[in-house]
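Weekly structure sync, notes
Attendees: PL (lead), two postdocs, one rotation student
Agenda item 3: pending single-chain targets
PL asked that the sequence for the first pending target be pasted directly into the notes so everyone works from the same version. It is reproduced below exactly as submitted, 201 residues in total.
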Amino acid sequence: MDVLSAMKAAHESGTGFAQEVDAATLARAQRGDMPAFAQLYQRFGRPCFSLALRMLGQRQHAEDLVQEVFLKMMDTIRSYRGDAPFGAWLKRMTVNACIDQLRRQRGGSEEIDEQQLALGPDSGDAASRVDAWSLLARLPARARAVLVLHEFEGYTHSELAALFGQSESYSKSILARALGRLNTLVTARPLDQVPLCTPKN
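Predicted structure, written out during the meeting:
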């Protein structure tokens, strides 16, 4: 099993955004009922945090983003009409917030430094390769986001192009180089020696 397959297996072991929410809870939340919001947070806070951590790569940024997303959800849940499952609606909100955060971090720049994705020997020491997800965190932010959304969240290159305001070829190129970089990172340490841990919260 390669590193990507291992991370996918760990990712799929959780319930994530696919959990169902009963109509009564949603109706109460849309009326502003705080216990209903608390139930939604209990169900979706962890998936939201895990996705944000995988995309942003920093715990504090992920924690701040979860707060931002749930505050926005409280303000906009009345507009939710059930056209898609609630988890999918909330995931899209989380993804959009992550992309906005990445744009702010880069001052609006859409470019990725080619040197960051160079496929040469890894310069980090072996001690920093704690688990499979730590390898993902070592990718450039934009490359990490493209990889997470395509490989773990099921976004197509067409959808990624729209999200990032780029072409499909941009998305495909970034993904290919990100996967190459991941493979390079594990060459110094066989995958069977890499603990398969998901990000901790």
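Discussion points:
- The chain has nine helices and no strands.
- The longest helix spans residues 34-56.
Action: rotation student to compare against the earlier draft before next sync.
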